[in-house]
Amino acid sequence: MDSLPAPSHLSPSALSFLDGKFHTNDVLSEASTLVAELQTQCSELDRSLNESTRRLGEGLSAYTSFSDDVNDRLSALASTCSSNAVPDGGRGEEGDGKGFREELAALAKEVARLENVRVYAETALKLNTLIGDIEDAVSHTINKHLRKPSSQNSEEPRLVAINMLKTTEGLLTSITKTQPQWKRLLSAADHRVDRALAILRPQAIADHQALLASLGWPPPLSSLASANQGLNPLLRMQADVRLKYSGNFLALCNLRELQRQRKCRQLEGHDREVARRQPLWVIEELANPLSLGSQRHFSKWIDKPEFIFTLVYKITSDYVDSMDEMLQLLIDEAKVIGYSCREEWISAMVTSLSTYLAKEIFPSYISQLEEESVTGIQSSARISWLHLIDLMIAFDKRIKSLVERSGILLFSDDNGMLQRISSLSVFCDRPDWLDLWAEIELGDALDKLKPDIEDENNWRKKVEAAVLSSCTDILKSPLISSAFLRHLSAVIERCRSLPSVTLRSKFLRLAGVPIIRKFFDSILVRCQEAEGLTALADDDAVIKVAVSNNAAHYFESALREWSEDVFFLEMDLDLDDKAELPSNADRNGEVLSESSGRVILDDEIKKLEDFRTEWVERISLVILRGFDARSRNYIKNKRQWQKVEEGWTVSKTLIDALDYLQSKMSVVEEALNSRDFVGVWRSLAAGIDQLIFNGILISSVKFHNGGVERFSSDIGVLFGVFGAWCLRPEGFFPKSSEGLKLLKLNENRVQECLAGGKRWLKENGIRHLTVTEAEKVVKNRVFSS
């Protein structure tokens, strides 16, 4: 028996095999038995190969015989056609022609079928030959590694196998497009190719790992500070080693590209995104040893994750430039389209970190949270969770700047790239963790807001310079609205770091929208309390409602400005948002609505807008009721319009109502923001206009000349009250103004009005009264003889 070569000449796979069989000196005596078993296996493989060769020969002989038979039949058909001999078969001429056509059609079908069989057989034979050559090349590669692992020609059989695999894949792709019905042939060929790849790929990766190990990769972590100063082993390769490494690098890239093409073909008609973007194996083999070496330190830093992020960033940043400088040329030479060495290196390191976080860090924190929920004892688990999220967000920002340093711009819609370089991508595979994070984030924000809500000073003091870029009016907002916006903004900023639009939308719904609703509930409760105690009869209650309205207006203006940001607009385009939200209930059990085709904040903005409109109307209604109560005697006194009240500019019975109106409006104007105040006085003006018109002008009142003069004076004073807020107050009292205009007509003009109808009203600028209302007004006019 020949002696084995020196251990240094054996390949890693051969050494591993021998170590597994002879792990102690006691089993060396079984070497002869192992040799006999290996020889038996080789004999069986040879026998199997001979049997396959024999079966192939029989198949070819059968095909030759079949082909000769087809050729004979075609020759007979040709001779029949040339002699125009049609067998009568006992039938007439018409029947003879029909039978010949039917036989000819059947024969044509048979010829087409035979042609398909021929093409199928030739294709199968070609595939069998190619795959057989692949299997031989793979076997030759393994044998060379077992016998001559240090030979410089060890790459040649692998390159041959890869080239044959490319040829085979091209043929299989052609079959898939032209003959998709040959599913069994494709399946059988893929099965054999997959078996060859299952042997070739691990061996190629093992050889690459061995080559890297011989180069001194991975370098010790202590050399990180000098990674760019020449201690990177890849930068210290000699020319012959560099050539060998380049060949190995290209072979592994070609093998990976071949695997990608196969996946794309096999997933034709399905989701091919899985196969289109796969990491580069060569970069993974550089990153994985460093990651494994680092994880020995990670286990000591479970309670201090900031050290983990610092070390990973240090490794990533120290080697990224040298990797990019050396390996990008090889990637371009391998014709791997759409890949950047810089991106792949960063992605590999971040992926390893995310994997460790998902396997070790997050489960540890979740177990602490579960223990806290069971025992009911408050611990630091939630604080630790939020601290970890802060570290991840800060790490992702540094990584993003590292990617963009080379001029690569990252866009928010490039979710695939963002996920590969974001440690927060752990939430893509674990949406339940995202729910937990949103719950913790929301609880933390509400806990911080609770003392702010209970502090009355935050409702009394105003926000300084509360002017938004979209609003030039000082909204007189209390500090509480600024506190809510500050916490909501913090949640949104953390949400921006998530690498997926779907995750951002879901997180914002779970953690951001409930904060808005908490704000809405707070201002609503204060308004209801004010209304319940005094029905808004006193000034303090009105001021309390006005302050809540100011807060709502300021909050709404901020949300409108935010909703115009691309961050929110792109959520509108996310069609998978509803599918990603199995449950839309917040932590208090309230259902979160989903707006299809609208910005995520639109529902909340609409609720705040409706809130303001409702309470502006209530303030107006309360003041209108007070004015009505104080002007009741004025409206019911019908005799006062028959004479002039000497010495009075305004009726005595109207003075109290006007004083109340002016007093209340001064309070509202001082407390309420100017935009909502406009709504108050306009609504109030419309109510008073209707009150005066219905109670005086179209009631059974007789207006003499003195009464018209008196009514005109009263209305002028009323207009003067509203003149402080507009230039033409009579325009907001359309019915009263036009009724007074009709009362001032002389007797002839009154008759024209009664006769002219709608056309006369339109010609004389009476546009807010109907013909019936106008007739009632002018009929109440009494002219003295």
TrEMBL record:
TM spans (from-to): none
InterPro entries per the UniProt record, alphabetical: EXOC6PINT-1/Sec15/Tip20_C_dom2 (IPR042044), RINT1_Tip20 (IPR007528)
UniProt cross-references to Pfam families, sorted A to Z: RINT1_TIP1
Superkingdom as given in the UniProt entry: Eukaryota
Annotated GO biological process: endoplasmic reticulum to Golgi vesicle-mediated transport; regulation of ER to Golgi vesicle-mediated transport; retrograde vesicle-mediated transport, Golgi to endoplasmic reticulum
GO cellular component: Dsl1/NZR complex
Protein name stated in the entry: RINT1-like protein MAG2
Source organism: Arachis duranensis
Taxonomic classification: Eukaryota, Viridiplantae, Streptophyta, Embryophyta, Tracheophyta
Gene name tied to this protein: LOC107487103
